[in-house]
Protein backbone atom coordinates (compact mmCIF):
# COMPACT_ATOMS: atom_id res chain seq x y z
CA UNK A 1 0.00 0.00 0.00
CA UNK A 2 2.77 2.40 1.01
CA UNK A 3 4.70 1.32 -2.03
CA UNK A 4 1.72 2.04 -4.26
CA UNK A 5 1.33 5.57 -2.95
CA UNK A 6 5.00 6.23 -3.25
CA UNK A 7 5.01 5.06 -6.85
CA UNK A 8 2.00 7.14 -7.73
CA UNK A 9 3.51 10.30 -6.32
CA UNK A 10 6.60 10.46 -8.42
CA UNK A 11 6.74 9.39 -12.01
CA UNK A 12 10.46 10.07 -12.17
CA UNK A 13 11.28 7.93 -9.19
CA UNK A 14 8.80 5.32 -10.28
CA UNK A 15 10.71 4.79 -13.49
CA UNK A 16 13.70 3.67 -11.49
CA UNK A 17 12.19 2.48 -8.23
CA UNK A 18 13.32 -0.83 -6.88
CA UNK A 19 10.67 -3.35 -7.84
CA UNK A 20 11.35 -6.77 -6.38
CA UNK A 21 10.33 -9.67 -8.58
CA UNK A 22 7.50 -10.54 -6.21
CA UNK A 23 5.99 -7.08 -6.55
CA UNK A 24 6.36 -7.16 -10.31
CA UNK A 25 4.42 -10.42 -10.49
CA UNK A 26 1.53 -8.66 -8.76
CA UNK A 27 1.09 -6.02 -11.45
CA UNK A 28 -2.45 -6.25 -12.76
CA UNK A 29 -3.54 -8.83 -10.20
CA UNK A 30 -7.26 -9.43 -10.53
CA UNK A 31 -7.53 -7.24 -13.64
CA UNK A 32 -9.09 -8.57 -16.84
CA UNK A 33 -7.91 -7.52 -20.27
CA UNK A 34 -9.66 -8.70 -23.41
CA UNK A 35 -7.89 -8.31 -26.75
CA UNK A 36 -10.00 -8.71 -29.88
CA UNK A 37 -8.13 -9.59 -33.08
CA UNK A 38 -4.98 -11.72 -33.23
CA UNK A 39 -2.97 -10.04 -35.99
CA UNK A 40 0.40 -8.32 -35.62
CA UNK A 41 -1.11 -5.74 -33.25
CA UNK A 42 -3.48 -7.82 -31.12
CA UNK A 43 -1.34 -10.91 -30.64
CA UNK A 44 1.74 -8.87 -29.69
CA UNK A 45 -0.30 -6.80 -27.27
CA UNK A 46 -1.66 -9.91 -25.53
CA UNK A 47 1.84 -11.33 -25.17
CA UNK A 48 3.43 -8.12 -23.84
CA UNK A 49 0.54 -7.59 -21.42
CA UNK A 50 1.34 -10.95 -19.87
CA UNK A 51 5.02 -9.94 -19.64
CA UNK A 52 4.45 -6.49 -18.16
CA UNK A 53 1.26 -7.10 -16.14
CA UNK A 54 1.79 -10.74 -15.16
CA UNK A 55 -0.98 -10.60 -12.57
CA UNK A 56 -3.64 -9.75 -15.15
CA UNK A 57 -5.74 -12.31 -16.97
CA UNK A 58 -5.43 -11.74 -20.70
CA UNK A 59 -7.92 -13.19 -23.18
CA UNK A 60 -7.36 -13.03 -26.93
CA UNK A 61 -10.43 -13.46 -29.15
CA UNK A 62 -9.62 -14.37 -32.75
CA UNK A 63 -11.84 -15.87 -35.44
CA UNK A 64 -9.09 -17.62 -37.41
CA UNK A 65 -7.44 -20.79 -36.12
CA UNK A 66 -4.12 -19.88 -37.66
CA UNK A 67 -2.18 -16.67 -38.13
CA UNK A 68 -1.32 -15.94 -41.78
CA UNK A 69 1.21 -13.16 -42.24
CA UNK A 70 0.45 -10.53 -44.88
CA UNK A 71 4.07 -9.38 -45.17
CA UNK A 72 5.86 -11.58 -47.74
CA UNK A 73 2.53 -12.74 -49.20
CA UNK A 74 3.40 -10.88 -52.42
CA UNK A 75 6.21 -13.42 -52.73
CA UNK A 76 3.59 -16.18 -52.65
CA UNK A 77 1.85 -14.43 -55.57
CA UNK A 78 5.24 -14.18 -57.29
CA UNK A 79 5.74 -17.91 -56.75
CA UNK A 80 8.91 -17.77 -54.63
CA UNK A 81 7.47 -18.49 -51.18
CA UNK A 82 4.87 -20.85 -49.77
CA UNK A 83 2.01 -19.59 -47.64
CA UNK A 84 2.91 -22.39 -45.24
CA UNK A 85 6.08 -20.41 -44.42
CA UNK A 86 3.84 -17.52 -43.37
CA UNK A 87 1.36 -19.52 -41.30
CA UNK A 88 1.64 -19.94 -37.53
CA UNK A 89 -0.47 -21.40 -34.75
CA UNK A 90 -1.55 -19.45 -31.67
CA UNK A 91 -0.46 -22.27 -29.31
CA UNK A 92 2.66 -20.52 -28.03
CA UNK A 93 0.67 -17.59 -26.69
CA UNK A 94 -1.34 -19.97 -24.53
CA UNK A 95 1.26 -22.54 -23.49
CA UNK A 96 4.26 -20.25 -23.00
CA UNK A 97 2.70 -16.95 -22.08
CA UNK A 98 -0.55 -17.81 -20.33
CA UNK A 99 -2.80 -15.95 -22.76
CA UNK A 100 -6.28 -17.46 -22.93
CA UNK A 101 -6.99 -17.81 -26.65
CA UNK A 102 -10.66 -18.06 -27.67
CA UNK A 103 -11.48 -19.01 -31.25
CA UNK A 104 -14.66 -17.02 -31.83
CA UNK A 105 -16.04 -13.74 -33.17
CA UNK A 106 -17.40 -10.78 -31.25
CA UNK A 107 -21.04 -9.86 -31.80
CA UNK A 108 -21.35 -6.88 -29.45
CA UNK A 109 -19.29 -4.53 -27.32
CA UNK A 110 -20.93 -2.73 -24.43
CA UNK A 111 -18.67 -0.02 -23.02
CA UNK A 112 -21.29 0.91 -20.40
CA UNK A 113 -21.19 -2.47 -18.65
CA UNK A 114 -17.64 -3.16 -19.88
CA UNK A 115 -18.27 -6.49 -21.50
CA UNK A 116 -18.23 -8.07 -24.92
CA UNK A 117 -20.48 -10.80 -26.29
CA UNK A 118 -19.20 -13.66 -28.43
CA UNK A 119 -20.99 -15.42 -31.29
CA UNK A 120 -20.75 -18.57 -29.18
CA UNK A 121 -23.08 -16.85 -26.71
CA UNK A 122 -20.80 -16.18 -23.76
CA UNK A 123 -20.01 -12.73 -22.38
CA UNK A 124 -16.54 -11.57 -21.37
CA UNK A 125 -16.22 -8.76 -18.82
CA UNK A 126 -13.17 -6.48 -19.05
CA UNK A 127 -11.35 -3.77 -17.16
CA UNK A 128 -9.46 -2.82 -20.31
CA UNK A 129 -10.44 -3.78 -23.86
CA UNK A 130 -7.98 -3.73 -26.76
CA UNK A 131 -9.43 -3.82 -30.27
CA UNK A 132 -7.21 -4.73 -33.21
CA UNK A 133 -9.65 -5.46 -36.04
CA UNK A 134 -7.41 -4.52 -38.98
CA UNK A 135 -9.07 -3.18 -42.11
CA UNK A 136 -12.43 -3.56 -43.82
CA UNK A 137 -12.97 -3.09 -47.56
CA UNK A 138 -15.33 -0.44 -48.88
CA UNK A 139 -16.85 -2.25 -51.86
CA UNK A 140 -19.68 0.27 -51.99
CA UNK A 141 -17.14 2.66 -53.54
CA UNK A 142 -16.48 0.20 -56.40
CA UNK A 143 -19.48 -0.07 -58.78
CA UNK A 144 -19.62 -3.53 -60.30
CA UNK A 145 -17.97 -5.19 -57.32
CA UNK A 146 -20.91 -5.14 -54.96
CA UNK A 147 -21.81 -8.82 -55.26
CA UNK A 148 -19.96 -11.75 -53.76
CA UNK A 149 -19.77 -13.32 -57.24
CA UNK A 150 -18.06 -10.25 -58.70
CA UNK A 151 -15.68 -10.05 -55.75
CA UNK A 152 -14.71 -13.65 -56.38
CA UNK A 153 -13.95 -12.87 -60.02
CA UNK A 154 -11.75 -9.92 -59.06
CA UNK A 155 -9.64 -10.86 -56.03
CA UNK A 156 -8.03 -8.24 -53.75
CA UNK A 157 -5.48 -10.59 -52.14
CA UNK A 158 -4.95 -7.76 -49.62
CA UNK A 159 -5.48 -10.09 -46.66
CA UNK A 160 -3.22 -13.11 -46.89
CA UNK A 161 -5.16 -16.35 -47.36
CA UNK A 162 -7.13 -18.15 -50.08
CA UNK A 163 -7.16 -15.07 -52.35
CA UNK A 164 -3.36 -14.98 -52.30
CA UNK A 165 -3.33 -18.46 -53.83
CA UNK A 166 -6.11 -17.64 -56.23
CA UNK A 167 -4.25 -14.67 -57.66
CA UNK A 168 -1.11 -16.76 -58.00
CA UNK A 169 -3.07 -19.43 -59.87
CA UNK A 170 -4.64 -16.95 -62.28
CA UNK A 171 -1.33 -15.31 -63.11
CA UNK A 172 0.10 -18.75 -63.87
CA UNK A 173 -2.88 -19.55 -66.13
CA UNK A 174 -2.70 -16.29 -68.13
CA UNK A 175 -2.37 -16.69 -71.92
CA UNK A 176 1.04 -15.93 -73.42
CA UNK A 177 1.27 -12.19 -73.99
CA UNK A 178 -1.76 -11.62 -71.74
CA UNK A 179 -2.46 -8.64 -69.48
CA UNK A 180 -2.37 -8.49 -65.69
CA UNK A 181 -3.80 -5.24 -64.32
CA UNK A 182 -4.21 -3.88 -60.85
CA UNK A 183 -5.97 -0.93 -59.30
CA UNK A 184 -4.63 0.84 -56.20
CA UNK A 185 -7.12 2.81 -54.05
CA UNK A 186 -6.56 6.26 -52.59
CA UNK A 187 -4.48 6.37 -49.40
CA UNK A 188 -4.70 5.62 -46.53
CA UNK A 189 -4.34 1.91 -47.08
CA UNK A 190 -2.67 -1.05 -45.41
CA UNK A 191 0.97 -1.43 -46.48
CA UNK A 192 1.54 1.59 -48.77
CA UNK A 193 4.55 0.06 -50.63
CA UNK A 194 2.72 -3.28 -51.05
CA UNK A 195 0.96 -2.60 -54.37
CA UNK A 196 4.20 -1.57 -56.08
CA UNK A 197 6.06 -4.57 -54.67
CA UNK A 198 3.26 -6.74 -56.02
CA UNK A 199 3.61 -5.22 -59.50
CA UNK A 200 7.37 -5.96 -59.41
CA UNK A 201 6.93 -9.54 -58.21
CA UNK A 202 4.20 -10.31 -60.75
CA UNK A 203 6.43 -8.89 -63.50
CA UNK A 204 9.38 -10.88 -62.18
CA UNK A 205 7.32 -14.10 -62.28
CA UNK A 206 5.90 -13.35 -65.75
CA UNK A 207 9.33 -12.60 -67.11
CA UNK A 208 10.27 -16.20 -66.33
CA UNK A 209 7.13 -17.90 -67.66
CA UNK A 210 5.35 -15.40 -69.93
CA UNK A 211 7.87 -12.81 -71.12
CA UNK A 212 5.57 -11.00 -73.56
CA UNK A 213 2.87 -10.42 -70.93
CA UNK A 214 2.06 -6.92 -69.65
CA UNK A 215 1.57 -5.56 -66.13
CA UNK A 216 -0.63 -2.46 -65.93
CA UNK A 217 -0.68 -0.53 -62.66
CA UNK A 218 -3.54 1.95 -62.27
CA UNK A 219 -3.13 4.14 -59.21
CA UNK A 220 -5.90 6.36 -57.85
CA UNK A 221 -3.15 8.36 -56.14
CA UNK A 222 -1.18 11.11 -57.88
CA UNK A 223 2.03 9.09 -57.61
CA UNK A 224 3.78 6.09 -56.05
CA UNK A 225 2.94 6.20 -52.33
CA UNK A 226 6.18 4.84 -50.84
CA UNK A 227 9.82 4.29 -51.82
CA UNK A 228 8.95 6.33 -54.88
CA UNK A 229 12.42 6.70 -56.44
CA UNK A 230 13.27 3.03 -55.99
CA UNK A 231 10.01 1.70 -57.41
CA UNK A 232 10.00 4.23 -60.24
CA UNK A 233 13.49 3.02 -61.12
CA UNK A 234 12.35 -0.63 -61.06
CA UNK A 235 9.34 0.12 -63.30
CA UNK A 236 11.34 2.19 -65.79
CA UNK A 237 14.49 0.10 -66.00
CA UNK A 238 14.27 -3.36 -64.50
CA UNK A 239 10.80 -4.00 -66.00
CA UNK A 240 11.12 -1.74 -69.02
CA UNK A 241 8.43 -2.56 -71.61
CA UNK A 242 6.59 -4.84 -69.19
CA UNK A 243 5.22 -2.64 -66.38
CA UNK A 244 3.19 0.40 -67.28
CA UNK A 245 2.36 2.76 -64.39
CA UNK A 246 -0.62 5.13 -64.63
CA UNK A 247 -1.19 7.65 -61.80
CA UNK A 248 -4.44 9.56 -61.09
CA UNK A 249 -6.56 6.66 -62.35
CA UNK A 250 -9.94 6.99 -60.64
CA UNK A 251 -12.04 3.84 -60.65
CA UNK A 252 -15.44 4.26 -62.29
CA UNK A 253 -16.89 0.76 -62.71
CA UNK A 254 -15.86 -2.79 -63.52
CA UNK A 255 -17.60 -5.44 -65.54
CA UNK A 256 -16.29 -8.44 -63.64
CA UNK A 257 -17.60 -10.91 -66.24
CA UNK A 258 -15.80 -9.38 -69.23
CA UNK A 259 -12.77 -8.18 -67.27
CA UNK A 260 -13.30 -4.60 -68.42
CA UNK A 261 -12.63 -1.75 -66.00
CA UNK A 262 -13.75 1.81 -66.75
CA UNK A 263 -11.70 4.73 -65.47
CA UNK A 264 -12.74 8.32 -65.04
CA UNK A 265 -10.19 9.66 -67.51
CA UNK A 266 -8.51 6.62 -69.08
CA UNK A 267 -11.59 5.04 -70.66
CA UNK A 268 -12.04 1.27 -70.62
CA UNK A 269 -9.25 -1.20 -70.07
CA UNK A 270 -9.55 -4.96 -70.52
CA UNK A 271 -7.25 -7.40 -68.75
CA UNK A 272 -6.97 -11.18 -68.48
CA UNK A 273 -6.45 -10.95 -64.73
CA UNK A 274 -7.64 -8.05 -62.61
CA UNK A 275 -6.50 -7.38 -59.05
CA UNK A 276 -8.51 -4.56 -57.50
CA UNK A 277 -7.41 -3.48 -54.03
CA UNK A 278 -10.51 -1.86 -52.52
CA UNK A 279 -10.56 1.43 -50.58
CA UNK A 280 -10.21 0.76 -46.85
CA UNK A 281 -11.40 1.77 -43.40
CA UNK A 282 -11.17 0.39 -39.87
CA UNK A 283 -12.43 -3.18 -39.37
CA UNK A 284 -16.21 -3.48 -38.89
CA UNK A 285 -16.03 -4.20 -35.20
CA UNK A 286 -14.34 -0.89 -34.39
CA UNK A 287 -16.95 1.07 -36.28
CA UNK A 288 -19.85 -0.92 -34.78
CA UNK A 289 -18.46 -0.17 -31.32
CA UNK A 290 -18.57 3.56 -32.03
CA UNK A 291 -14.78 3.94 -32.10
CA UNK A 292 -14.55 5.34 -35.63
CA UNK A 293 -13.99 8.98 -36.48
CA UNK A 294 -15.38 10.79 -39.51
CA UNK A 295 -12.94 9.28 -42.00
CA UNK A 296 -13.64 5.68 -40.95
CA UNK A 297 -10.52 5.28 -38.78
CA UNK A 298 -10.19 5.30 -34.97
CA UNK A 299 -8.70 8.32 -33.22
CA UNK A 300 -6.42 7.34 -30.33
CA UNK A 301 -4.17 8.89 -27.68
CA UNK A 302 -0.67 8.03 -28.90
CA UNK A 303 0.67 7.58 -25.34
CA UNK A 304 -1.65 4.67 -24.58
CA UNK A 305 -3.66 3.96 -27.76
CA UNK A 306 -6.81 4.51 -25.71
CA UNK A 307 -9.72 5.57 -27.90
CA UNK A 308 -10.41 9.30 -27.89
CA UNK A 309 -14.12 8.42 -27.96
CA UNK A 310 -14.67 5.47 -25.62
CA UNK A 311 -12.83 5.20 -22.27
CA UNK A 312 -11.05 1.97 -21.26
CA UNK A 313 -11.07 0.80 -24.89
CA UNK A 314 -7.76 0.86 -26.79
CA UNK A 315 -7.35 0.52 -30.55
CA UNK A 316 -4.11 -0.60 -32.22
CA UNK A 317 -2.92 -1.61 -35.67
CA UNK A 318 -4.21 -0.68 -39.11
CA UNK A 319 -7.61 0.44 -37.73
CA UNK A 320 -6.30 3.64 -36.12
CA UNK A 321 -6.21 7.07 -37.72
CA UNK A 322 -2.44 6.88 -38.24
CA UNK A 323 -0.27 9.79 -37.17
CA UNK A 324 0.65 11.97 -40.17
CA UNK A 325 3.51 10.45 -42.16
CA UNK A 326 3.29 7.03 -40.49
CA UNK A 327 2.19 3.96 -42.44
CA UNK A 328 -0.24 1.15 -41.68
CA UNK A 329 2.26 -1.69 -41.43
CA UNK A 330 2.95 -4.88 -39.49
CA UNK A 331 5.98 -3.23 -37.91
CA UNK A 332 3.95 -0.23 -36.69
CA UNK A 333 1.22 -2.57 -35.40
CA UNK A 334 3.84 -4.47 -33.39
CA UNK A 335 5.22 -1.23 -31.95
CA UNK A 336 1.82 0.23 -31.08
CA UNK A 337 0.95 -3.03 -29.33
CA UNK A 338 3.92 -2.62 -26.99
CA UNK A 339 3.18 1.03 -26.16
CA UNK A 340 -0.44 0.05 -25.47
CA UNK A 341 0.56 -2.94 -23.29
CA UNK A 342 3.04 -0.82 -21.32
CA UNK A 343 0.43 1.90 -20.75
CA UNK A 344 -2.14 -0.63 -19.50
CA UNK A 345 0.49 -2.24 -17.22
CA UNK A 346 1.45 1.19 -15.86
CA UNK A 347 -2.21 1.95 -15.22
CA UNK A 348 -2.61 -1.30 -13.24
CA UNK A 349 0.59 -0.62 -11.29
CA UNK A 350 -0.44 2.93 -10.45
CA UNK A 351 2.51 4.31 -12.39
CA UNK A 352 2.41 7.23 -14.84
CA UNK A 353 2.50 6.17 -18.49
CA UNK A 354 5.79 6.59 -20.32
CA UNK A 355 5.68 10.23 -21.45
CA UNK A 356 8.03 9.61 -24.37
CA UNK A 357 7.42 6.39 -26.28
CA UNK A 358 9.85 5.87 -29.17
CA UNK A 359 8.79 3.48 -31.89
CA UNK A 360 10.12 2.52 -35.29
CA UNK A 361 8.88 1.35 -38.63
CA UNK A 362 10.55 -0.74 -41.29
CA UNK A 363 8.95 -1.97 -44.48
CA UNK A 364 10.97 -4.26 -46.69
CA UNK A 365 9.82 -4.69 -50.28
CA UNK A 366 11.07 -7.09 -52.92
CA UNK A 367 11.69 -5.62 -56.36
CA UNK A 368 12.49 -9.02 -57.88
CA UNK A 369 12.67 -12.63 -56.75
CA UNK A 370 16.19 -11.96 -55.41
CA UNK A 371 16.47 -8.31 -54.36
CA UNK A 372 14.79 -6.09 -51.79
CA UNK A 373 14.75 -2.51 -50.51
CA UNK A 374 13.64 -0.94 -47.23
CA UNK A 375 12.19 2.23 -45.83
CA UNK A 376 12.67 2.93 -42.13
CA UNK A 377 11.61 5.64 -39.69
CA UNK A 378 11.90 6.32 -35.96
CA UNK A 379 9.06 8.22 -34.26
CA UNK A 380 8.69 9.82 -30.85
CA UNK A 381 5.74 11.31 -29.04
CA UNK A 382 5.55 15.08 -29.26
CA UNK A 383 3.81 16.63 -26.30
CA UNK A 384 2.93 19.89 -28.01
CA UNK A 385 1.32 18.27 -31.06
CA UNK A 386 -0.13 15.30 -29.11
CA UNK A 387 0.95 12.94 -31.85
CA UNK A 388 4.00 10.98 -32.90
CA UNK A 389 6.54 12.67 -35.16
CA UNK A 390 9.54 11.45 -37.11
CA UNK A 391 12.87 11.93 -35.31
CA UNK A 392 14.87 14.23 -37.62
CA UNK A 393 17.96 12.63 -39.12
CA UNK A 394 16.75 9.07 -38.48
CA UNK A 395 15.22 6.64 -40.96
CA UNK A 396 15.51 6.58 -44.71
CA UNK A 397 15.55 4.44 -47.81
CA UNK A 398 17.97 1.81 -49.10
CA UNK A 399 20.51 3.29 -51.47
CA UNK A 400 19.72 0.53 -53.96
CA UNK A 401 18.09 -2.91 -54.16
CA UNK A 402 20.27 -5.78 -52.97
CA UNK A 403 20.34 -9.49 -52.26
CA UNK A 404 21.62 -8.76 -48.76
CA UNK A 405 18.42 -6.88 -48.00
CA UNK A 406 16.33 -9.70 -49.49
CA UNK A 407 17.95 -11.97 -46.90
CA UNK A 408 17.24 -9.44 -44.12
CA UNK A 409 13.64 -9.00 -45.33
CA UNK A 410 12.89 -12.70 -44.93
CA UNK A 411 14.65 -12.74 -41.54
CA UNK A 412 12.57 -9.75 -40.45
CA UNK A 413 9.36 -11.57 -41.41
CA UNK A 414 10.26 -14.56 -39.23
CA UNK A 415 11.60 -12.52 -36.31
CA UNK A 416 8.53 -10.28 -36.13
CA UNK A 417 6.26 -13.34 -36.23
CA UNK A 418 8.26 -14.88 -33.38
CA UNK A 419 8.09 -11.65 -31.40
CA UNK A 420 4.36 -11.30 -32.02
CA UNK A 421 3.42 -14.86 -31.13
CA UNK A 422 6.09 -15.46 -28.50
CA UNK A 423 7.98 -18.27 -30.18
CA UNK A 424 11.59 -19.45 -29.74
CA UNK B 1 12.80 19.28 -13.38
CA UNK B 2 11.32 15.79 -13.25
CA UNK B 3 13.10 15.06 -16.45
CA UNK B 4 16.49 16.16 -15.21
CA UNK B 5 15.96 14.14 -12.02
CA UNK B 6 15.17 11.16 -14.19
CA UNK B 7 18.25 11.67 -16.33
CA UNK B 8 20.49 11.99 -13.29
CA UNK B 9 19.06 8.85 -11.76
CA UNK B 10 19.40 7.04 -15.06
CA UNK B 11 23.00 8.16 -15.40
CA UNK B 12 23.77 6.97 -11.88
CA UNK B 13 21.99 3.70 -12.52
CA UNK B 14 23.85 3.20 -15.78
CA UNK B 15 27.16 4.01 -14.17
CA UNK B 16 26.85 1.40 -11.42
CA UNK B 17 27.83 -1.78 -13.20
CA UNK B 18 25.44 -4.65 -12.66
CA UNK B 19 23.77 -3.17 -9.63
CA UNK B 20 21.57 -0.91 -11.75
CA UNK B 21 19.85 -3.89 -13.22
CA UNK B 22 19.21 -5.48 -9.86
CA UNK B 23 18.19 -2.43 -7.94
CA UNK B 24 15.94 -0.73 -10.41
CA UNK B 25 13.52 -1.15 -13.23
CA UNK B 26 13.92 1.46 -15.94
CA UNK B 27 10.42 0.92 -17.34
CA UNK B 28 10.88 3.51 -20.03
CA UNK B 29 14.03 1.87 -21.40
CA UNK B 30 12.40 -1.57 -21.16
CA UNK B 31 9.69 -0.24 -23.45
CA UNK B 32 12.19 1.38 -25.84
CA UNK B 33 14.23 -1.83 -26.02
CA UNK B 34 11.15 -3.95 -26.75
CA UNK B 35 10.75 -1.99 -30.00
CA UNK B 36 13.99 -3.57 -31.25
CA UNK B 37 12.63 -7.12 -30.92
CA UNK B 38 10.46 -6.72 -34.03
CA UNK B 39 13.69 -7.24 -36.00
CA UNK B 40 16.01 -8.92 -33.51
CA UNK B 41 13.44 -11.49 -32.33
CA UNK B 42 11.79 -12.02 -28.94
CA UNK B 43 14.14 -10.89 -26.12
CA UNK B 44 16.76 -10.39 -28.82
CA UNK B 45 16.84 -14.05 -29.90
CA UNK B 46 17.01 -13.87 -33.68
CA UNK B 47 15.98 -16.67 -36.00
CA UNK B 48 18.63 -15.62 -38.54
CA UNK B 49 19.56 -12.57 -40.60
CA UNK B 50 19.64 -9.94 -37.88
CA UNK B 51 22.29 -10.68 -35.26
CA UNK B 52 21.04 -11.99 -31.89
CA UNK B 53 21.29 -9.41 -29.14
CA UNK B 54 20.65 -11.96 -26.38
CA UNK B 55 23.87 -12.93 -24.67
CA UNK B 56 25.80 -9.81 -25.72
CA UNK B 57 27.21 -7.36 -23.19
CA UNK B 58 25.68 -3.94 -22.64
CA UNK B 59 28.99 -2.16 -23.29
CA UNK B 60 29.64 -4.08 -26.50
CA UNK B 61 26.19 -3.30 -27.86
CA UNK B 62 26.41 0.32 -26.80
CA UNK B 63 29.70 0.73 -28.69
CA UNK B 64 28.17 -0.76 -31.86
CA UNK B 65 25.05 1.40 -31.54
CA UNK B 66 27.19 4.53 -31.27
CA UNK B 67 29.10 3.44 -34.35
CA UNK B 68 25.85 2.96 -36.31
CA UNK B 69 24.69 6.35 -35.08
CA UNK B 70 27.92 7.93 -36.30
CA UNK B 71 27.65 6.37 -39.74
CA UNK B 72 30.29 3.67 -39.24
CA UNK B 73 30.26 -0.12 -39.89
CA UNK B 74 28.43 0.01 -43.23
CA UNK B 75 25.13 -1.54 -42.03
CA UNK B 76 22.11 -2.28 -44.22
CA UNK B 77 19.55 -0.67 -41.89
CA UNK B 78 20.87 -0.07 -38.34
CA UNK B 79 22.10 3.46 -39.09
CA UNK B 80 18.51 4.45 -39.89
CA UNK B 81 17.40 3.19 -36.47
CA UNK B 82 20.33 4.20 -34.25
CA UNK B 83 20.06 7.82 -35.42
CA UNK B 84 16.57 7.95 -33.91
CA UNK B 85 17.95 7.87 -30.35
CA UNK B 86 20.18 10.10 -28.22
CA UNK B 87 23.39 8.61 -26.83
CA UNK B 88 21.83 8.61 -23.39
CA UNK B 89 18.79 6.68 -24.68
CA UNK B 90 21.04 4.14 -26.42
CA UNK B 91 23.01 3.70 -23.17
CA UNK B 92 19.86 2.87 -21.26
CA UNK B 93 18.57 0.54 -24.01
CA UNK B 94 21.92 -1.29 -24.12
CA UNK B 95 21.84 -1.67 -20.32
CA UNK B 96 18.39 -3.27 -20.50
CA UNK B 97 19.35 -5.60 -23.36
CA UNK B 98 22.68 -6.51 -21.81
CA UNK B 99 21.14 -7.98 -18.72
CA UNK B 100 18.55 -10.18 -20.39
CA UNK B 101 18.99 -13.91 -19.78
CA UNK B 102 20.33 -15.81 -22.73
UniProtKB/TrEMBL annotation, chain A:
Ribosomal protein as UniProt keyword? no
Q: Which residues form the signal peptide?
A: 1-25
Record's Gene3D superfamilies? FAD/NAD(P)-binding domain, Flavocytochrome c sulphide dehydrogenase, flavin-binding domain
GO MF entries: flavin adenine dinucleotide binding; oxidoreductase activity
**PROSITE patterns noted in UniProt:** TAT (PS51318)
Sulfide dehydrogenase [flavocytochrome c] flavoprotein chain central domain spans which residues?
Answer: 164-278
Xref: InterPro entries: FAD/NAD-bd_sf, FAD/NAD-linked_Rdtase_dimer_sf, FCSD_central, FlavoCytC_S_DH_flav-bd, FlavoCytC_S_DH_flav-bd_sf, SQRD, TAT_signal
Q: What protein name applies here?
A: Flavocytochrome C
- State the organism of origin: Pseudothauera lacus
From TrEMBL, chain B:
Give the residue range of the signal peptide.
1-23
Q: Which UniProt keywords apply?
A: Heme, Iron, Metal-binding, Signal
| This protein's record includes keyword Metal-binding | yes
Asked whether the keyword Iron is assigned, the reply is yes
Q: Which residues cross the membrane?
A: none
Sample GO molecular function, one term:
electron transfer activity
Q: Name one Pfam family in it.
A: Cytochrom_C
List residues of the Cytochrome c domain.
13-101
Q: Which domain of life is it from?
A: Bacteria
- Designated name of the protein: Class I cytochrome c
Amino acid sequence: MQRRQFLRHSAALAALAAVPAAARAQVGRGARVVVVGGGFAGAACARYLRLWAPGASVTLVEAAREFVSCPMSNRVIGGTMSIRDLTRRYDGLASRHGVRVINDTVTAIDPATRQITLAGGSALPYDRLVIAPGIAFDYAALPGLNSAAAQERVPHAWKAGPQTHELRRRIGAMPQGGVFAMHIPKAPLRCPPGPYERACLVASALRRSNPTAKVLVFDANPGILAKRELFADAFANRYKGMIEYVPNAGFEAIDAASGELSFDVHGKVRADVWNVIPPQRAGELALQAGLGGGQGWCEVDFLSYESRLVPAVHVIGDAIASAPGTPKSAHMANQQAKVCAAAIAAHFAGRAVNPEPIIANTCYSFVSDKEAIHIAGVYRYDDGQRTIVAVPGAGGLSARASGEEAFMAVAWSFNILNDTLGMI
Amino acid sequence: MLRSALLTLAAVAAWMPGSAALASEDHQAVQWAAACFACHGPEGRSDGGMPSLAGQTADGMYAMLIDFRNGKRNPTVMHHHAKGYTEEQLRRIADILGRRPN
